[in-house]
Amino acid sequence: MEIDGSVAVVTGAAAGIGQAIAGRLAGLGARLVLADISSCAQTLSMVASAGGEATVVNADLCNDREVGRLVDVAVERFGGLQILVNNAGGGQPTARYPDALVAQWSAVLDLNLRTPMLATQFALPALRAHGGVVVNVASIAGLDHQPYEWPEYGAAKAGLIRFTTAMAGLASDNVRITCVVPDWVRTARAEAELAAMTAGERAARPAPIPLPVLADTVIDLIRNDELSGHVVVLRPGQPPHRLAP
Question: What residues are annotated to the active site?
Fold first, then answer.
């Protein structure tokens, strides 16, 4: 796909991974809808510095109506939609399954699985119109098999990976769906975790994946028209590993 002149929605665009992806897309000529419950002012400034054009939608991405509004804004402001990056995810749990209340762990499933499924469903008519691509941002927590301290998050990301591969047949309908599965990424949160570690703890862990590496992987998935249902795994210090559907 040609990115220059395309229209892209990026969820979770206020900081970190979403911000890095938005900056790369803007630098390549995409027009952007930046979606987040937090302020996207810093990302908007980054897009402007890259010579790009963007509009911001402050939205609760667990709200069906507000998710649907992202596509409406893309069509009304820019005339269509070719790229959807389902990046919003994570959460700030005060308790984790099975100690968390049902509403608490259900909210994690909603943000990390239901929201990207819903955004994809809402976006499909616009994506089909001129050909489009969906990139889901999952996590290694949904791929590995060892015990994990946040079960609902791991389950949601595993579901997002399987959702991607299950929907590979969309390629016959003019839409590709792909997924990137990163390990630990060098976000502000990762920097804080590193700072809290002892020198020995830091030495025992591989360095986090640089944000530009992750953003470049997303760009590769968007550009490569041969990829549908493909999942690319990123681990620290290793080249990207593609899982074919």
Answer: 153
Does any domain span residue 217? yes
Task: Give the SS3 label for residue 108.
Answer: helix
CATH number at residue 171: 3.40.50.720
The answer to whether residue 243 is domain-embedded is: no
Rounded to two decimals, the pTM is 0.94
Per-residue pLDDT of the chain in tens (245 residues, 90 and over written 9): 999 999 999 999 999 999 999 999 999 999 999 999 999 999 999 999 999 999 999 999 999 999 999 999 999 999 999 999 999 999 877 899 999 999 999 999 999 999 999 999 999 999 999 899 999 999 999 998 899 899 999 999 999 999 999 999 887 889 999 999 999 876 657 566 666 666 666 666 777 789 999 999 999 999 999 999 999 999 998 899 998 67
Q: Is 240 within the bounds of a domain?
A: no
Number of domains in the chain: 1
- Quickly list H helices, 38-141: 41-49, 64-78, 102-109, 115-130
DSSP class of 38 = S
